[in-house]
Every structure is written in structure tokens, then in C-alpha cells.
Amino acid sequence: MTSTPTSTPDATGAVDYHDPAARGRLEVSGLVKSFGPQQVLRGVTLSVDPGSTTAIVGPSGSGKTTLLRLIAGFERAEAGSVTLSGRTLAAGDAWVPAHHRDVGYVAQDGALFPHLTVGQNIAFGLDTSRLPQGRKATRARVAELLEMVSLAPALATRRPHEISGGQQQRVALARALAREPELMLLDESFSALDAGLRVATRRTVAKVLHDAGITTVLVTHDQAEALSFADQVAVMRDGLLAQVDSPLEVYTRPVDRATAEFLGDAVMLEAWVEGDTATCSLGAVRLAPTTRRGRVQLMLRPEQIRVDEHGPIRGVVVDTDYFGPESTVRLELTSGREPGCETSALARSGEIISIRHSNAFIAAKGTELRLRIEGEAIAFPPDA
Ligand SMILES: Nc1ncnc2c1ncn2[C@@H]1O[C@H](COP(=O)(O)OP(=O)(O)OP(=O)(O)O)[C@@H](O)[C@H]1O
Q1: Which of 21, 84, 105, 198 is deepest in the core (most CB within 10 A)?
Q2: Of 199, 228, 252, which closes a domain?
Q3: Domain total of the chain
Q4: Is 35 a pocket residue for ligand 1 (Cβ < 6 Å)?
Q5: Model ipTM?
Q6: Strand residue runs (E) in 85-119
Q7: What is the DSSP letter of 179?
Q8: Range of 319's domain?
């Protein structure tokens, strides 16, 4: 690790290592990357606070892994810069090779060496020049790292094929942690695991990284994983970040329809906006702050449409998808609105919407349900 304390700007103008407050701060600015004629990254800018976790999520081929590989130093960009802890890693001709970046990388399959034991795999990540000499010190550090990732010390003598997929991912993390990186990059690190193991492994890994205060960037195509794992979610589309914000904000206040639909189910309705109210087939709906007026597309999450026996909206169950704890219920709206409810030219019966409900018994086909809307809707341009 390069750790000369100085505040002298280098040739690129960046302050050279090491302002303690900046340790682990990642700044990516204007990254452009092409493969042949295809521009894969088209000017990506991203800030990650020290010790925080960012998930980069987006459709397949949007450029997520390429961005991670540029940060790791496995690829070079045509334009833009990467700085970590105030140290320039890449900018113009300035270039720090991958093995000098203080960056850990955990691949999708863990990429353990099959011919080495778990202990040897982890020891491979150790900088032995920083350890007191001797095999005893190495063994102790390996045991410590295994404990950090909640694995029994006895596993050290096994080979990767003798442990489970979730254990392999934790060994891969321990190997990456052995170098005490300032930044951990997780490239679809949980996606090869089955659902239960994925959640448990993700939780362990998140806790280890959080407790160690290591800045983390996770690439995933799994929206739920991104929303649950990260402090900050960066939504990538066509080589650009469409939105970077907290999980709650990107889910409840997506910047556009594509982002809304990528992050979860969305009910889209034609609507007419006046002031802070939109009128649509569900009646008058409160809007999140917007400058839009007139015709819009309204977005609600299905869970915002609640079954309520006194609700002003009526619909008849068309069909149901049962998922155990929850069902997605499709309803055809009927015109029997309550007296006193606003109506408009857009409020019409026959429109089909989806809601979520936890009681599968109420959702038999043909049942009439009364509904109300909770929270605010988002307005997008009418033709997006
Ligand atoms: N080494 C390479 N040579 C040529 N094209 C590449 C290379 N690496 C990536 N690409 C192309 O760049 C685009 C973005 O790929 P990338 O792997 O970054 O996307 P991704 O968002 O991570 O996708 P996925 O979720 O499927 O892994 C794809 O069209 C891919 O084919």
C-alpha cells in the first residue's frame, strides 16, 4: 500500500494520497470506453462515499462490468478519470496498474484456485511482507480472515470443490480482504448462488465490509439485491447512469419510465395534471412534486393500490398470480365510483391494473374489490 502522507497536487491536479478523511472515497468522472466501433461507456460519473456501498444495476449489456473493470484497472478508458482516496488511478496518461490500486475484486464464481486449499487461497491474498515472518503468523491471519467471513477454521484444509458455493464466495471475499483493500468490487458475486444462500451470503458479506469500513461497489442485474444491499443505487442504461440515489429514492421517485420499470412492477396510467393532483382512471391521485402539467403518464407501484372496503375505487378480479406470502391481482376497473369522487374524461371503466395483496382468499376471479391509493404517484411525459 502506498501511504506517504502529502497534500501536494500531482500532475493531474489531484491531491496525492492520503487525506485520512478521503480514505476509501471513489470518484469516477466522465469515463468513456469502446470495444471496436461499440461505445460501451458514454461518460460515466459516479461518487462513492468512504465506507459506503453502491450497487450498479442495469440490464444485460448496459456496461456495468466494464465500469467495474475500469475501476479495478483491468481495462483502460479512452477518456475520464478514476481516483481513490484522493489518489489518481487513471486519468489521461496517468495509470496505476491493478495490483497497486488497493482494490479487492470478487468475481461471480469466486475464481478460487482449485488446486490450492482454502487456507492457501486466502494466504495467496496476503501481503507476507507485512506479516511477521513465519507460517504460524500466516496461519493465524488466515484463521482470523475465515472468522471474519463466518467460516470455521477447520475449512482451511479443504479444497474449493469440498465446500458449498456460498462458502466459496466467502473464501473469495476473505482472499480479497487479506490485502486490506480500500475499495471492494463485487462483480455479480452472489448471482450463482440459489435464492436462500444468496440472501444469507449477501448479508454476511455486507456486514463484514460494513464493519471493516471498506467502500464497496457491487454490480448486479438483480433489482432486489441492489435495493437491499446498497446505500446508493446507480442505475445504468446504454452506457450511462440514468439515476444515482438512495434505494428508496430510485424506487419511489424514478427519473423516467424505463428506470421505474427496470426497478420493479409499475402501474402506468394516462392522466391529466392540474396543480399537485392527477386525474386518471383511479380518480384524483396525489402527485410527487413535479413541474409537469396537462397530459402525463402516471406511475404507481402496485403495492400503493390497497384493498379497502371503504375505498372509492372499484374493480373486479380478472386473474391472480399466487407467490405464497403475496399475490399479484389483476383487476378490471368498474365505473361504480362513490358519489362525490372526482371524475374526468380519463376516468373510465374497463382498464386493467395490477395490485399486490397478502390475502389470496379475497382474490378469486370475479370478486369485486374496493380500493384506495396510498402515497404519491410519479408523472412522466405522455409519450415516454
Ligand atoms: N472485451 C470485450 N470485447 C468486446 N466487447 C466487449 C468486451 N467486454 C464487453 N463488451 C461488450 O460491451 C457491452 C457491455 O458489456 P458489459 O459486460 O459491461 O455489460 P453488463 O451490463 O455487465 O452486462 P451483463 O449484466 O450481461 O454482465 C456488451 O455489448 C459486451 O458485449
Answers
A1: 84
A2: 252
A3: 2
A4: yes
A5: 0.97
A6: 87-91, 94-95, 103-106
A7: T
A8: 265-380
- The CATH number of residue 97's host domain is 3.40.50.300
Cβ(33)–Cβ(78) under 8 Å?
A: yes
Ligand 1 contact via 60 beta carbon (within 6 Å): yes
Q: How many angstroms separate the alpha carbon of residue 63 from the centre of ligand 1?
A: 6
Supply the residue whose CA is at minimum distance from atom 30 of ligand 1.
61
Q: Whose CA is nearest to atom 3 of ligand 1?
A: 35
How is residue 210 written as a grid cell? 460494513
Domain shared by 241 and 376, yes or no = no
Nearest CA to ligand 1 atom 25: 60
Tens-binned pLDDT, residue by residue, of the chain (384 aa): 333 333 344 444 444 445 667 889 999 999 999 999 999 999 999 999 999 999 999 999 999 999 999 999 999 999 999 999 999 999 988 999 998 998 999 887 768 888 999 988 898 877 655 555 667 777 888 888 888 788 888 888 899 998 888 888 888 888 888 888 999 999 987 777 777 777 887 888 888 888 889 999 999 988 988 998 899 999 999 999 999 999 999 999 999 999 999 999 899 988 999 888 898 888 889 999 888 889 999 999 988 998 888 888 888 998 888 877 788 888 888 864 444 344 443 445 577 888 888 776 667 888 888 888 999 999 999 876
d(CA 37, CA 382): 34
Nearest CA to ligand 1 atom 9: 66
- What is the value of pTM for the model shown? 0.84
| Domain-located, residue 305 | yes
Q: What is the CA radius of gyration of the chain?
A: 25
Judgement on whether residues 222 and 355 belong to the same structural domain of the protein = no
Q: Is there a contact between 319 and 363 (Cβ–Cβ < 8 Å)? A: no
